[in-house]
Amino acid sequence: MKKAVPVLLVVFFLLSVAAVLFVKMKTNTSVSAESIVHAKDKETLKEYFPVPEFALVNQRGQTQTLSSFRNTVWVANFIFTQCKTICPLMTAKMVQLQKKLPTSDIQFVSFSVDPEHDTPEVLNTYANKWAPEEKRWTLFSTDEKQLNQLTQGLRITAQKTPGQIDPIMHSSVFLLIDKNGFVRGMFDSDDRKDFKRLEEAVKSMTAGSPEVPLPENGIELYHALSCANCHEDASLAPALGALVGSKRELETGLLATADDAYVRESILVPQAKRVRGYPLQMPAYDTLTSKQVDALISYISSLKSNNAAVGSAEIASDVVCHMKVRIDSSALKISTDAGVFYFCSQYCLERFTKTPHAFIH
Ligand code: HEC
Fold it and tell me: Which residue's CA lies nearest to atom 13 of ligand 1?
């Protein structure tokens, strides 16, 4: 009788361990996307696990399933449109990636983690704001059940965090998925080296096509790099209109004068002097040539404040880049059957005339 107690305890202990392991295997919660991304011995391009089945409505109002992506390589992430912290940064990176990879044999997918708010119409507006001419980008509205299946199956964290600046916390990982629906890599969009690896991995899995060089001209660069998408939205980033020459209050409480060197540093090492009051991080544009940075600086210096208080002019929004444009006799505009459209520059006007339907909704 005396011996039976320890034996029973050992048996009970072993059974408990087995039960815990079984539950972990079943739910897969032991491996998160982050732990794979940061694993020391991370294997690139191995077959990690399959994408769970789904049937979701995209921003164009069409239902698509996992099999719609058979035979194509795709890059996926999770975002929500009302997010003020990491999503604009992730989307700016997504759009840069799309521009860097002009090949037609790749698709880009963003799943919304906000089923309540992000309807196909809301996602359509978001897609048109960030990348109006991009046909390879699909944004899916989700429902709670399928969102849970996807995040669990893909090891992505997505959690409601009421009361925080962003009411949903989620992973900033980008996934690379092959033609058979297998996740072949997970990449941290916050880590420049890892994100560059994603670009290389995509190139190795697709036929590829010659890279399109970035423009050299300030205004074209400003648009090509999505600067306006954050800087024309006061809830995301400061307006750059009257920046040069002004005093800036930094997160540290110090003041800085916004001269050329300040603007240069803001573009190359944005984390060096953060402006107070913006939880969002600006991406670093440190792969630009010094000529391109100079061009951006002189473009920013040429921007006039479009503050409505300056003069009594009415303000319109450029349908291409969403910059605010003062409606006066010198404003660039086009009259179409769908109405009158104003532009910040000849560059946006030309983009509009090439594919007006991409901008009129
Ligand atoms: C994803 C959003 C985002 C994008 C895209 C972005 N920025 Fe920013 N930028 C910010 C935020 C947020 C701040 C304020 C916080 C900080 O200083 O980092 C900022 C700050 C700045 C500042 C300092 C502004 C001030 O008031 O002192 C400059 C200059 C600037 N950005 C230029 C650019 C240029 C040029 C581009 C495009 C090449 C760009 N930004 C793209 C979000 C963005």
Answer: 237
Mean pLDDT, to the nearest integer, of 52-57?
Answer: 98
Q: Is 175 in the pocket of ligand 1 (CB under 6 A)?
A: no
pLDDT of residue 298: 95
Report whether 138 contacts 108 (CB < 8 A): yes
Do 154 and 51 form a contact (C-beta atoms < 8 A)? Answer: yes
CA torsion sign for 212, 214, 215, 219 is positive
**CA distances from residue 167 to 85, 148, 164, 346 in whole angstroms, order as listed:** 11, 17, 6, 40
Q: Positive or negative CA dihedral for 295, 296, 297, 301?
A: positive
How far apart are alpha carbons 344 and 350 in whole angstroms?
11
Of all protein residues, the one whose alpha carbon is nearest to atom 23 of ligand 1 is 266
Q: What are phi and psi of 264, to 5 degrees?
A: -60, -45
Single-letter amino acid code for the residue at 216 = E
Of 239, 236, 238, 256, nearest in space to 247 by CA? 256
Residue linked to tokens 């964290």: 157
User: For residue 27, what are its two tokens?
Assistant: 């739910």
pLDDT on residue 163: 80
Instruction: Identify which of 103, 331, 130 has the alpha carbon closest to the alpha carbon of residue 227.
Output: 130
Whether the CB of 344 sits within 6 Å of ligand 1:
no
Q: Cα(242) to centroid of ligand 1, in Å?
A: 14
Ligand 1 centroid – CA 74 distance (Å): 29
Cβ proximity of 319 and 352 under 8 Å? yes
Q: Please state, in angstroms and rounded to a whole number, the distance separating the CA atoms of residues 49 and 53.
A: 12
Query: Given phi > 0 = left and psi -120 to 50 = alpha, else beta, which region is 253?
Result: left
> 209-255: per-residue pLDDT in tens?
788 888 999 999 999 899 989 998 888 999 998 899 999 999 999 99
Instruction: Say how many CA atoms lie within 13 Å of 23 toward its Cβ.
Output: 5
